[in-house]
Structure formats: structure tokens, C-alpha cells
């Protein structure tokens, strides 16, 4: 799962990327692509790890991608290349400036967000128009076309022409026939308001103006944390009146933005979080671990995280009848602790 970071120039994309991924770069490397995997903090994994004392503890991870701006001298080309690079991202983090200084006037995060969002909409419109032209040329030549696709692309064009992002239309944003177009405005987006080091700030105004979810961070403060020992970092955060690093919140929100959830496997060897989409069935969840488990699936033994930790052990939970046997069609729930029973394939 990959999130692409976008934002207008000088809004703090590098700063956020480095704070999130705890990777400092020696030189300002805005030309190069940067990518890093980040652990999804999960207190449930910490608790399970405490219970089982495994040799290894594995958290869920998310990849963050910061596209380089490329070296083309032409601004339009540079933009185009950034858009092409984030096309395969599963969702976008849209950073907006919410601090003053550096030669910029007072911030207007809602206006900045809208400005870049319009560019996404426009880039999608170019793609939709090109496809429509092609389909209509084929129609004229009496070639057979996929009329369902034709209708869908026309619908997209109408939405985009009205200046609306496709993500507001879940039926279009998730249509399998449109997947190949990798429309940018169809991707889920999380707005990150990069705010001044001090002073009140809230995302309420931004959210009511744009209708988008917004998270407030203090990027520069967070960026300074990454090179500090943990104890110093805590003290430093306290000085700014921050109790928990906003990066933890950004990572958690990215996870749910993607419609993801975790199930767990536990044991002496490893306590581990596995990432699946909400609504995944047991037999497909098994595949997250290994395709052989899916092939030879017999059943899943499932206990909820809450029941397991309240009971104190798997054996106790079993005595209480909280360990359920579930079949292939069972819809996995966030926090399920699972053991799969399966035949080893021939
Ligand atoms: N005051 C203040 N300055 C910030 C903040 N975040 C970033 N900056 C400064 O703004 C400048 C740009 O930050 P970057 O993180 O490089 O922004 P960017 O979006 O990657 O910039 P480009 O790649 O040039 O578009 C740097 O000088 C940062 O130190 C912030 O929260 N507060
Ligand atoms: Mg940059």
C-alpha cells in the first residue's frame, strides 16, 4: 500500500516526508524520488507481544512516496511527470501550507488545496477526453466498442467538467472498468495542514470550506524530533504542548483512509499484524499470509483481540467459548486473532 505525497511548492512536503519516515537527507533532494516504509503504530501489537513474548514482533507497514520534481526546465512538463509518478499510489496525502513566512503571506489552506485539486481534476479531464475521442472515432467507423465503458467515461467527464473530483462519486471512483485510467481525483485524499510552530490552529474551517478531512501538524517541529533521543523528544513535544507526535495520527489516518484493517497471528515465534481491506473474507485473508493456506483452507480459528486480552490467554478464551471456528466466507473483523487450519497441498 502506497501513499503519494503532493502539494504546492514550498508547502512542506519534504519536511513531512522526513518527519513521517524519520529519514533525513543530507542535501535538499527535491529532484529525486523518495520512498520509505513506515510502521503503523498499534498498541494491540504491543499488548500481544507482551503476552506472548515472541522472538519477533511485526507491525503493519505503509509506504510513503515523495515524487521528485524532475529536471525538465519546463514547469508544465515537471508537473506532468509528478502526476505520472503518483498514478500508482493507492491514496494521496495533500500537504497545504498553514504557516506564514519564507516570503509567503498569510496562509489560506482551503484555497491552496482547491488550487492543486483543480490540477488533478484537469489532468483527469485530459485523460477522459482522450479516451472519449478514441471511442467516438471507433463508433464512427462502425467498430465495436464497450458501451458500458463509454457511458462511464462520459459520466466522469460530466463530473470533471463541473469541477468536481471523482472521489466524491464512489461508484465512479471504484468502477472496475475505469481502473486502468488511474484517475488522480478518484484517489482517497488526506489533507495535512502544515502549521506554524506555535499558536492555535484547527482544521475545522478548512474542513467546512472544502468538505475534506484535514489533519493539523506542525511539520517543522516534528521534523526536528527525528534526530533527538526519545526522552529529549518527549520533553521537546511537551514544550510545544503536543502530547503525541502528529505523525502517529497521520500514519493511523492513512491506514483507515485506504480502507485497511489488521488481523493478527500470535505465537512464540512471532506476533504479527497482517493488512487486509475492510470486508475481506477469511479465505482471502489467508492469502495475505501464503497462497497455500488459501488453497488448502479448512477453517479459521478466530478470537477477537478484546476477548483474548480480557481472558489473558488463548486457553482461557477457549474455555469461555470465545474461540470460534469460522469458514471461508467469514468476513474478517478488525483485531481478529486468527489461526488458519489448512491442508498442505499436493
Ligand atoms: N515556519 C515554518 N516553516 C516551514 C514549515 N514546514 C516547512 N517549512 C519551511 O518551508 C520551506 C519548504 O519546506 P519543504 O519541506 O522543503 O517544502 P516542499 O513542499 O518540499 O518544497 P518544494 O519541494 O520546494 O516544493 C523550508 O524552508 C522549510 O524549513 C513549518 O511548519 N513552519
Ligand atoms: Mg520538496
Structure overview:
With about 350 residues, the chain is α/β, with parallel strands linked by helices. The protein has a domain at about 280-340: Beta-grasp domain (Ubiquitin-like (UB roll), Roll), CATH 3.10.20. It has 14 helices and twelve strands. The two termini are about 30 Å apart. The relative contact order is 0.14. The mean pLDDT is about 90. It binds guanosine-5'-triphosphate and magnesium ion. Guanosine-5'-triphosphate binds near residues 13, 15, 99, 194 and 218.
Structural topology:
Blueprint: E1 2-7, H1 13-21, E2 34-39, H2 43-52, E3 56-58, E4 61-66, H3 75-86, E5 91-98, H4 109-140, H5 147-161, H6 170-173, E6 189-195, H7 204-210, E7 214-217, H8 219-225, H9 230-239, H10 246-257, E8 260-265, E9 270-277, H11 282-289, H12 291-295, E10 297-304, H13 305-311, H14 314-319, E11 324-326, E12 336-342
Parallel strand pairs: 1-4, 1-5, 3-9, 5-6, 6-7
Antiparallel strand pairs: 2-4, 8-9, 10-11, 10-12
Helix pairs in contact: 1-8, 4-5, 4-7
The chain binds guanosine-5'-triphosphate and magnesium ion.
Magnesium ion binds next to helix 1.
Amino acid at each position: 500500500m502506497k501513499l503519494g505525497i503532493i502539494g504546492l511548492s514550498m508547502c512542506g512536503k519534504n519536511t513531512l516526508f522526513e518527519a513521517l519516515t524519520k529519514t533525513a537527507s543530507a542535501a535538499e533532494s527535491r529532484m529525486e524520488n523518495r520512498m520509505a516504509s513506515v510502521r503503523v503504530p498499534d498498541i494491540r501489537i504491543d499488548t500481544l507481544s507482551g503476552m506472548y513474548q515472541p522472538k519477533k514482533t511485526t507491525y503493519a507497514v505503509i509506504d510513503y512516496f515523495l515524487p521528485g520534481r524532475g529536471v525538465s526546465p519546463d514547469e508544465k512538463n515537471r508537473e506532468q511527470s509528478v502526476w505520472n509518478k503518483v498514478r500508482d499510489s493507492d491514496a494521496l496525502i495533500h500537504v497545504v501550507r498553514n504557516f506564514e513566512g519564507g516570503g509567503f503571506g498569510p496562509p489560506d489552506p482551503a484555497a491552496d488545496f482547491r488550487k492543486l485539486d483543480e490540477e488533478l481534476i484537469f489532468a483527469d479531464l485530459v485523460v477522459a477526453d482522450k479516451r472519449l475521442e478514441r471511442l467516438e472515432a471507433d463508433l464512427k467507423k462502425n467498430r465495436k466498442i464497450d458501451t458500458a465503458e463509454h457511458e462511464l467515461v462520459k459520466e466522469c467527464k460530466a463530473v470533471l467538467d463541473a469541477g468536481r473530483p471523482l472521489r466524491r462519486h464512489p461508484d465512479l471512483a471504484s468502477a472496475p472498468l475505469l481502473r486502468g485510467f488511474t484517475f488522480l481525483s478518484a484517489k482517497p485524499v488526506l489533507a495535512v495542514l502544515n502549521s506554524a510552530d506555535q499558536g492555535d490552529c484547527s482544521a475545522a474551517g478548512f474542513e467546512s470550506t472544502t468538505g475534506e478531512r484535514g489533519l493539523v501538524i506542525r511539520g517543522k517541529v516534528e521534523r526536528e524530533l527525528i534526530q533527538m533521543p526519545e526522552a529529549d523528544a518527549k520533553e521537546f513535544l511537551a514544550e510545544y504542548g503536543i502530547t503525541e507526535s502528529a505523525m502517529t495520527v497521520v500514519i493511523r489516518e492513512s491506514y483507515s483512509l485506504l480502507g485497511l484493517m489488521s488481523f493478527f497471528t500470535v505465537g512464540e515465534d512471532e506476533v504479527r499484524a497482517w493488512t487486509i481491506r475492510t470486508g475481506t473474507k477469511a479465505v482471502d485473508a489467508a492469502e495475505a499470509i501464503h497462497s497455500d493456506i488459501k488453497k488448502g483452507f479448512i477453517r479459521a480459528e478466530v478470537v477477537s483481540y478484546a476477548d483474548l486480552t480480557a481472558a489473558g490467554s488463548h486457553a482461557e478464551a477457549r474455555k469461555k467459548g470465545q474461540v470460534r471456528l469460522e469458514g471461508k466466507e467469514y468476513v474478517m473483523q478488525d483485531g481478529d486473532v486468527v489461526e488458519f487450519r489448512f491442508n498442505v497441498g499436493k
